Amino acid sequence: MYKNNLRKSTLLSLPVLLSALILTGCGDNMSDLHAYMNEVKARQPAPIEPIPAIKPYVRFIYPGHDTDPFDSAVLEAKTVAEIPESVLIDKNRVPEFLETFQLDSLRMVGTVFKDKELWALIRIPDGAVHRVKTGNYIGKNHGKITSIKDVGLSLSEIVDNGFGGYKERDNELAISTLNQP
Q1: Which residues have CB under 8 Å from 3's CB, separation 6+?
Q2: Residues 122-141: what's their mean pLDDT?
C-alpha cells in the first residue's frame, strides 16, 4: 500500500514539477535584445537622396506656321476640301449567300471550268464548298469579284471612307493550301 501511495503522489507531483521547470525558461533576461535595440537606435540614419531638379519647359516655335491648328474655321475648311467623293451602295440589290461571311473566314480551295468560264471554289466555315464566278459578291464589304485566276481571285470592296461615305478598295483572296475547314 505504501508503494501505491508513493506512485500516486509521484504521478500527482510530476505535472507540478514540469510546469515549474517550463516557467523557469520564461525569465526576464532579455538584456541581449535590449542591447541590440539600443545599438540600432544609436546608428546614424542613411542620408535621403535629394529630389531631382525639374527641367523647365522650353517652348519650340515651328517656323512658317502662323495659324492656329485648332481654329475651328481653318479645321472645317480643310475637312470640307479634303472629303473624297463617295461611292454609292446599291441598297436594292439582293445580297448573295457568301456576303453573310467575313472575307477572312472564307477559303478559296480550288477552281473549275464550267461553260468556258473559270469558277472559284470557296469553302465556308462549316466546311461546305460554294462556287462563284466573276461578277458574284463575297464578304461583308460588298466585295464584287473582278477576276478569277488559278492562284486566287480579285475583288473590289466598298468600305467606309471615314467621312460618312464609302470608297472602293481592291482586295484579293488567295487559294488556301491548308486542308482546314
Answers
A1: none
A2: 94
